Amino acid sequence: MPQSRRAFLQAVSAAATAMAAAPMATGQSTRAATRASRKLDLLILGGTGFLGPAIVESAMARGHRMTIFNRGRTRPNIFPGVERLVGNRDPLKDDGLAALKGRRWDAVIDTSGYYPRMVRASARLLADVVQQYVFISSTLVYSDNSIVGMDESGPIATMEDPTLESMGDQGQHYGALKALCEQAADEATGGRATNIRPGLIVGPRDNVPRFTYWPVRVERGGEILAPGDPDDPVQYIDVRDLADFVITCIENRTTGYFNATGPNSPTTIAELLYGCKAVTGGDATFTWVPAEFLEQRGVNAWAEMPVWVPPREGYEGFHRIDIGKAIAAGLRSRPLADTVRATLRWYHAWPRDRPFPWRGSLEAEREAEVLAEWHDRG
Fold first, then answer.
1. pLDDT tens track for 114-123
2. Is 226 strand, coil or helix?
3. Contacting residues for 64 by C-beta, under 8 A, at least 6 apart
4. Which parts of the chain have pLDDT scores under 50?
5. Domains of the chain, start order
6. Residue 338 neighbours by CB distance under 10 Å
7. How many C-beta neighbours within 10 Å does residue 204 have?
8. Tens digit of pLDDT for each residue in 59-82?
9. Would you list the DSSP string of 250-307?
10. Which of 4, 59, 148, 315 is the most exposed place for a label (fewest CB within 10 A)?
């Protein structure tokens, strides 16, 4: 290993150890919730998946009143005592949006909008009875991942048929549909929409647990296949930080478009992995394997190697999104140690009689095979 690279890893390890030493509360967050100066009545469309519960918890911790609107099928008893309205995002199905009629709220948070027709319907219905419409979008609305430092004015994905209600076989329409949903919310509310574009959302309750692979794998210990270069950038946002930012925007009546990922300061895949080790302890060691070698053996970035995407070949800016505007509006990221510990608590509490919902990630046998091939490459 070249001296510069060795020095880099030593520095990363030291920094990660310092982050891990940060205090952590036994509850949901290291930050004590600040009670709002004015209690708000908030409506959330969704509210029982991954981001939704974190938003409900953040709002209630700050003293706001919540109403949850959804089909009533997923975890219907997750928040006893919180008002629940049953309906359907699609106004053409079941009772549609009927349960929302004749009511007033200070703001609505739309965590479950994927098709512009449905977002337009809810935004139009609520435009006259809420002051603000918060739509949860995605950084995947951007059409060019090669731009380093992409801000909110970056080029947006489009699709030939904007009425199509399908993500596509490979999810290729997801970003364009989210962009159309943003436009629908903005137009229906006369510019009173807050369109928040998160990157990879991580932490407890993650129903697509990509990030979870790393804390769990590092905790298991032994030699770990670490992807690419140690200084490859990564971006992610703890679901609780995103939830806090949503509520902050509502309390301050902040509208507009915001890239909402993190951490607040740029970080790398090495900082992530060494940060996991600083929290979990153990005998984990990291063997850094170049992206080209992994590609030749069918080990894919983002899937088998979660979070990580090498910054090349059109993806130079994928993990270098500009979040300055969101930081100025109140986005704050917690220490990595907090996210790792909370993620591991959630993982270890998973019922052992139910399979954990892994998506991709590298199985132990395959990891050992690739590491052996790397060591034997001659």
1. 999 999 999 9
2. strand
3. 36, 39, 40, 41, 42, 247
4. 1-29
5. 1-26+201-236+264-313+337-378 (no CATH), 31-198 (3.40.50.720)
6. 25
7. 21
8. 999 999 999 999 999 888 899 999
9. HHTT--EEEEE-S-SS-EEHHHHHHHHHHHH-SS-EEEEE-HHHHHHTT--BTTTB-S
10. 4
